[in-house]
Specification:
The structure holds 4 protein chains of 4 kinds. Chain A has helices at about 15-30, 40-60, 75-100, 110-125, 130-150, 155-185, 190-200, 210-225, 235-240, 245-270, 275-295, 300-320, 325-350, 370, 375-385, 395-405, 410-435, 450-470, 470-480, and strands at about 65, 70-75. Chain A is an all-alpha fold. The chains are: A mainly alpha, B mainly alpha, C mainly alpha, D mainly alpha. Chains in contact: A-B, A-C, A-D, B-C, B-D, C-D. At the C-D interface, helix 1, helix 2, helix 3, helix 4 and helix 6 of C face helix 1, helix 2 and helix 3 of D.
Chain lengths: ~475, ~675, ~170, ~100
């Protein structure tokens, strides 16, 4: 009997994923012995794991590692995104414990699931094989279905999980069909091989199978990043899911979706650029506009942020359409600053909410600025950053995305983007108006800030302001991580 | 050379941080206000040093870039945290820090005892910081940061009295309208960046770089488009047609805010921006025409509305809009230095007027408060005869009013006359010039009329205030009066540094210092205009003297009408009937003439003013803004309803999306 | 010829049972029809000389997954759907579905197999054995995805427990 | 040998049937079964491509798709059970607490 020649396993290429999954499994075992009121320790352990992983990410910077016969490639692009995932996971974990305790739902499985979801995102970012990317995406999705429905006694949470699951599975069908067609057109699932095969045989343009495969994959990724018209699950799922998990899934999976989206389209299908740029142009405009306009009407703040996250996906798509170094670096910079500002805003929502979160409406923030000035200032900083007002990081990111589009000649797209972000100020401002310009109705006496959330807020504020005032360093990193 | 200029914005920032973070703990008003004012004073000192150093330099060495550090850099794109120190920014620095300092001092007295005193000073310092950033930034992006910052502070300060719903609404309106303008600014920025980069390979947003390549810009075309974008930004920030309605509403804020932000500094940012980019605007004749027309129209239009207002601050607000119109008129006819000159003199006298009105309101408010009266302390119909009660306030107010009315010898005369002359004699707009001059001249007459109407109604005649309150009316404390005196002094003498050439020659060859000082900034535009062949039209001295005479006469007519209507007529009839019963008929006739005046001039004017205010302002402009808002909200509601909560509908939208997209690719 | 005929018959059964899946009122009947479709698909795998895939199809899909589904249907004791969706909703959905079909067939008719050809032909499958080919590929080229599936299954187990368990 | 085209058309038909099912059925479990039908159609495409290209990659992909389907089944059915416990229904028209 002949032996199978094992491929060159390069663990350096999957080091972050390995560490995270090992810690997740260890936590699952430890969980059994931890009494339910002390599950926070699992959170701390997972934070330690994330920090360790973060160091391996930093350590890997600059030395691209390929492994497993080309299934995975840990380059700067992947590493930058891994950083974003780790940041969003860490910040979400920091705000989880207080929320989960309040909702009497602090099951220890939460943390391993977050870590495994992060693992899935990382595989999406570094996968160079359609199978790796697909499985990473499914690992992420399945974890998120569970996390969305994590509050099993809450009907809203159940509903969020179920909706996400049904629609997610539906979109998987399209994504897979797209991958199948790409496979049929090129005979391989390795991204680099697809690119070289398409280039050698000049398949682009006339080959319908390749073209439709591209379209269907775009549909699948668009679902993940919540681009219109595949965005409709977003508000419902975000509203129903436990707030820390909403924070988590509004940032990480979106970034992961973009990472895979960009890698597949830029590396595997550069020859179809003219075709997919058209599609993404329309999607970007539709996404920004629908997200912003619908957000105008929202009273529930979680829902409002959900629509705003749709709009933000649209802005990031602008950078994607641009496709040049500035635009792509803009995507990364923007997703990172989005992680800080959005999770920061959700941290405030966690703090303000009572059990069951009956007070999630904008009106419930009346006079918040007078009762808790410091928290309100934090919230204002996050909202200003989301609205793209300088000197917050959101402004720099948006500026980068749009100037990328302008350099690439997409003037109109940039104009629509700027117009949209001007309109978006209205609904962010409304929260501010309620915080600072209405008399307090409530005393906000139930509100107490746990050290973990305080830490999260400090990190988030720093993460919004520092890159906003001195963005040079981060932008340079993002420049170095560009795939081109 | 100018290495320490970074101190100028730093001081207010420190003040903001101290007051913002610890203000609540400090509690002591004198300390908070002292810190706020001191920080701005420090900036003022550094700015003055910078100015003197600048004056000592020869003309061609007056442009300096002081780079602190690289802010954003990627490939071809670079934006620094860097300051541009040149004569233009020096002038603006002096105005912002100088007038700013006086208003800070004033606020210590004015805001005494207000809830959130520290908040006010923190915002005010933050505003000063942002404004300095706007003025000093050496690239468009940094300028935009300041641009947004001042808008934000303006919003925060307008809504300072948040208990009043109208204040909150006004703040929101200001912010949203400013955002529309900002949108224009960003588009202009992007278009300029893209055009220079893709066409000439010069990816830059730095002013000196852009100016260096000024000859590369084509005349018209894309430059017209991008200057129009920038001008849209300016109309928002500087309250020009059609984005001006927020400014009168912004009077909901405390009066020092109106003086600093909505008269002296922030609203002039649009003028400054055009001055900064003069090399671009001069290459876009169409834009210049639009700027001139909008400026002249706004000047006239706002002045007519000003005649019909009874709220003392609203009169001043419309007056500000109108004066800003003059500045844009100057920009639009290529008289950049004159526009900036008017910006400066306007800062002096308008700040003085606002602060004076604030002193009156302050006093009225206290008096009414003592008497438990609910009369509006800002309504001029409740005032009258305050001359004797508040002599210093009256005197300074009168001086500033004379200055704004354009009486020779005062600051406003020199700057306004220069603008009117340039509007008439400029080589850009051909036959339109006369209309521009006409609008400006009529607006000058109206300005004189409504400003003196304000003075007469407030300080002269019978005291119409509730008798119970009379005794409580008194002069404001020194901390309030002192800034008034300084500003009044400046409104009187401030004009002599920029005397028009013909007057200077008459007085023995005094040059126009101001214009000479600014010359390096506008060098390119001057050269460019000279190089155009048709630019050499020459006008006689007689004509210039004649026009100057006409504008003075118009101003005097305006003042006389105000005098007749608000001082003379109420008292004259009584005297006449008592002393000379025989002349009763003549007195009757006098009345009749008044009625005629009323009928022929005042009433139509008032009616027009009222119509424009209530009809155009409220219905059309606000209507359009509201209408757009409402229809967007309508779409929002419709889209919201699509979000029905049913999985089927979501899946359907996905499937529909797939079908449509594939169909596009198959059948395109 | 015979093979084509056989294909047509099985294909007809697959399509018919597929239609039954979406038309049967009783979810149990739908599930049973789906199992039938899966068997048909397994048959196609055999015809495509992929016997290992056919076996997995029957064992995993028809065996494990469908059993789970049927079990849940019985557990929840749902019989028939009380009322169908409104007819116009069904109509619109069907039209969209038919559009999907139409477009897919449209482009399939206009495209040919352009991918790079590999070495796996009938002779090789017969000589090496299908299972071995799969196994080799799975543990060499696609080792990483294979490892990821282990995480995926772990998540599924943990997730199912977390979501549906009553009390810890 | 039956042509590749026949397999592709057949799987397109199955895929469309699955799509229609997702859009028309109200029972969440049946919707999920329709998704499974779609996935199977894709699997058939993969295997057919794989065979006609003479390249095993497609069949490996199918292998993973099956695993994913199993995982989704486990989690999805658990979510349905949880929902059913709270609402006594798995009709998706009852899944509309979250809207607008």
């Amino acid at each position: 009997m002949e032996t199978i020649a094992m491929p060159a396993i390069n663990f350096a290429a999957i080091m972050p994923e390995t560490i995270l999954s090992v810690i997740a499994m260890a936590l699952l075992l430890i969980n059994v012995f931890v009494p339910s009121e002390q599950k926070a320790y699992l959170g701390y352990l997972s934070l330690i794991g994330i920090v360790v992983t973060f160091f391996t990410v930093i350590g890997g910077w600059g030395t691209p590692q390929e492994g497993f016969n080309g299934s995975v490639m840990q380059d700067n692009f992947a590493l930058f995104f891994k950083g974003i995932f780790l940041v969003s996971a860490a910040l979400s974990i920091l705000i989880s414990d207080q929320y989960m305790k309040r909702e009497e739902c602090n099951h220890g499985e939460l943390y391993p699931l977050i870590l495994l979801a992060t693992c899935g995102m990382m595989l999406m970012a570094s996968g160079t094989d359609l199978m790796t990317i697909f499985l990473g995406l499914e690992l992420l999705s399945v974890s998120l279905y569970v996390l969305a429905g994590f509050q099993r006694d809450s009907l809203k949470s159940n509903e969020a999980g179920l909706k996400y699951f049904l629609l997610g599975a539906f979109s998987t069908g399209f994504l897979l069909y797209g991958m199948a067609l790409i496979y049929g057109a090129t005979g391989t699932t390795r991204i680099a091989a697809i690119a070289s095969y398409v280039a050698q045989n000049s398949l682009a343009g006339s080959n319908l199978m390749l073209l439709i495969g591209m379209v269907l994959m775009a549909v699948g990724f668009s679902f993940k990043i919540a681009a219109a018209p595949f965005h409709m699950w977003t508000p419902d799922v975000y509203e129903g899911a436990p707030t820390p998990m909403t924070a988590f899934m509004s940032v990480g999976p979106k970034a992961a979706g973009f990472a895979a989206f960009v890698r597949v389209f830029v590396i595997a299908l550069p020859t179809l650029r003219a075709d997919w740029a058209d599609l993404l142009w329309v999607l970007a405009v539709l996404t920004m506009t629908v997200g912003n306009i619908t957000a105008l009407y929202q009273k529930n703040i979680k829902r409002m942020l959900a629509y705003s996250s749709i709009a933000h996906a649209g802005y990031v798509l602008v950078g994607f359409v641009a496709g040049n170094a500035v635009g792509t670096a803009g995507i990364m910079f923007y997703m990172l600053s989005y992680a800080f500002m959005n999770i920061g805003a959700f941290a405030i929502i966690v703090l303000v909410g009572k059990k069951g979160e009956p007070n999630n409406n904008v009106e419930d923030y009346a006079g918040f600025g007078f009762k808790h000035p410091l928290l309100a200032v934090c919230m204002s900083i996050f909202l200003f950053s989301l609205a793209g007002i300088p000197p917050a990081a959101g402004f720099i990111g948006k500026f980068y995305l749009f100037s990328g589009a302008i350099q690439a000649g997409y003037i109109w797209l940039a104009i629509i983007g700027v117009l949209n972000s001007a309109a978006s100020v209205y609904y962010y401002l409304r929260v501010m108006v309620f915080m600072y310009m209405k008399d307090p109705v409530e005393e906000f006496d139930w509100l107490k800030v746990s050290p973990a959330i305080a830490l999260c807020l400090i990190i988030a504020v720093a993460g919004v302001l520092i890159p906003g005032i001195v963005p040079g360093y981060l932008l340079e990193l993002a420049q170095k991580a560009v795939l081109l | 050379m100018f290495d320490n200029v970074w101190l100028i914005p730093l001081f207010p920032l420190i003040g903001f941080l101290i007051n913002g973070l610890f203000g609540k703990a400090i509690k002591e008003e004198k300390v908070i206000g002292g810190i706020g004012a001191l920080m701005v004073f420090c900036s003022f000192v550094v700015a003055s040093m910078t100015l003197f150093k600048m004056i000592s330099l020869p003309g061609h060495e007056r442009v300096h870039n002081v780079t602190l550090f690289t802010w954003i850099k990627s490939g071809t794109f670079q934006a620094d945290i860097a300051f541009l120190i040149d004569p233009l920014s020096c002038v603006m620095l002096m105005v912002v820090t100088g007038v700013g300092f006086l208003i800070h001092v004033y606020s210590i007295g004015y805001m005494h005892g207000e809830e959130g005193f520290y908040r006010f000073f923190a915002y005010l310092n933050l505003f000063t910081f942002s404004m300095l950033l706007l003025v000093m930034g050496n690239n468009l992006l940094l300028m935009f940061v300041g641009w947004e910052g001042v808008g934000l502070c303006s919003y925060l300060l307008i809504g300072y009295y948040f208990h009043k719903k109208s204040a909150g609404d006004a703040g929101k309106k200001a912010f949203v309208m400013n955002r529309v303008g900002d949108f224009g600014f960003l588009l202009g920025l992007f278009t300029l960046y893209w055009y220079m980069g893709s066409k000439h390979g010069i990816w830059t947003i730095q002013f000196t770089e852009l100016a260096k390549h000024a000859e590369l810009y084509p005349v018209g075309g894309v430059v017209t488009a991008l200057t129009l974008f920038f001008f849209l930004g300016a109309t928002g920030k500087s309250a020009q047609i059609p984005l001006y309605t927020w400014l009168p509403d912004a009077m909901e804020g405390p009066t020092p805010v109106s003086a600093l932000i909505h008269a002296a500094t922030m609203v002039t940012a649009g003028v400054y921006m055009i001055g900064r980019m003069n090399f671009l605007f001069i290459k876009a004749p169409e834009t210049m025409m639009v700027v001139a027309i909008i400026g002249a129209a706004t000047a006239l239009f706002a002045a007519t509305i000003g005649t019909a207002q009874n709220d003392i601050k609203r009169v001043l607000a419309y007056s500000t809009v109108s004066q800003l119109g003059y500045m844009f008129l100057a920009m639009g006819v290529g008289a950049f230095a004159a526009g900036i000159f008017h910006l400066m003199t306007h800062a002096f006298f308008k700040a003085c007027l606002f602060l004076g009105s604030g002193a009156v309101i302050h006093s009225m408010h206290h008096a009414l408060h003592h008497a438990h009266s609910h009369d509006d302390p800002q309504d001029m119909r409740n005032m009258g005869g305050l001359k004797s009660k508040m002599p210093m306030t009256f005197l300074t107010f009168l001086l500033a009013t004379i200055a704004i009315a354009g009486i020779p010898g005062f600051a406003g005369f020199f700057s306004k006359d220069e603008i009117l002359w340039q509007a008439f004699a400029n080589p850009h707009h051909g036959t339109l010039n006369f209309a521009l001059w006409g609008c400006g001249a009529i607006a000058a007459g109206l300005t004189a009329f409504y400003m003196f109407r304000l003075v007469f109604m407030t300080f002269f005649g019978d005291c119409r205030i509730n008798p119970k309150c009379k005794d409580h009316l008194h002069e404001s404390p020194m901390v309030i009066v002192f800034p008034l005196i300084v500003l009044a002094f400046l409104s009187v003498v401030g004009g002599y540094i920029g005397m028009p050439k013909i007057i200077g020659e008459l007085l023995g060859g005094i040059p126009n210092y101001f214009e000479h000082f600014l010359a390096p900034v506008f060098e390119f535009s001057e050269e460019y205009v000279k190089s155009q062949a048709h630019a050499t039209a020459h006008h006689s001295l007689v004509l210039e003297w004649g026009l100057m005479g006409v504008s003075v006469v118009i101003a005097l007519v305006g003042i006389s009408i105000a005098f007749v209507l608000y001082i003379a007529s109420p008292s004259l009839p009584a005297k006449f009937t008592a002393a000379f019963p025989a002349l009763h008929r003549a007195v009757y006739n006098k009345w009749y003439i008044d009625e005629l005046y009323d009928f022929l001039f005042v009433n139509p004017c008032k009616a027009l003013g009222n119509f424009l205010w209530k009809g155009f302002d409220v219905v059309v402009v606000d209507g359009i803004v509201d209408g757009v808002g409402k229809s967007v909200l309508g779409i929002s509601a419709a889209l919201k309803n699509l979000q029905s909560g049913y999985v089927h509908n979501y899946a359907l939208s996905m499937a529909l999306g797939v079908v449509v997209i594939i169909a596009f690719y198959l059948f395109r | 010829m015979l093979e084509s005929l056989f294909f047509l018959i099985v294909a007809a059964v697959a399509v018919l049972s597929g239609i039954l899946v979406i038309t049967c009122k009783n979810p149990i009947n739908s599930a049973l029809s789906l199992i039938l479709t899966f068997f048909c698909v397994a048959t196609f795998y055999v015809m495509l000389e992929a016997p290992f895939m056919a076996a997995v199809q029957v064992i995993v899909y028809a065996g494990a997954i469908m059993v789970l589904i049927v079990f849940v249907i019985m557990l929840l004791n749902i019989k028939t759907e009380t009322d169908k969706r409104t007819s116009h909703a069904v109509l619109i959905s069907s039209i969209i579905g038919l559009f999907v079909l139409f477009e897919t067939i449209y482009f399939l008719n206009r495209s040919s197999l352009t991918g790079s050809k590999g070495l796996m032909d009938s002779a090789m499958i017969k000589s090496v054995g299908h299972t071995e080919i799969i196994g080799k590929a799975l543990f060499t080229d696609f080792l990483l995805p294979f490892e990821i599936t282990s995480l995926l299954l772990l998540v599924a187990i943990v997730g199912a427990v977390v979501v549906s368990k009553r009390k810890i | 040998m039956v042509s590749l085209h026949s397999y592709l058309i057949l799987s397109a038909i199955l895929f469309s049937i699955g799509t229609i099912g997702v859009l028309t059925r109200r029972n969440a479990i049946v919707i999920f079964m329709c998704v499974e039908l779609m996935l199977n159609a894709v699997n058939l495409t993969f295997v057919a491509f794989s065979r006609y290209l003479g390249n095993v990659d497609g069949q490996i992909f199918v292998f993973f798709v099956m695993t994913v389907a199993a995982c989704e089944a486990a989690v999805g059915l658990a979510l349905m059970i949880a929902f059913f416990k709270n609402k006594e229904s798995i009709d998706v028209e009852d899944v509309n607490l979250l809207k607008w």
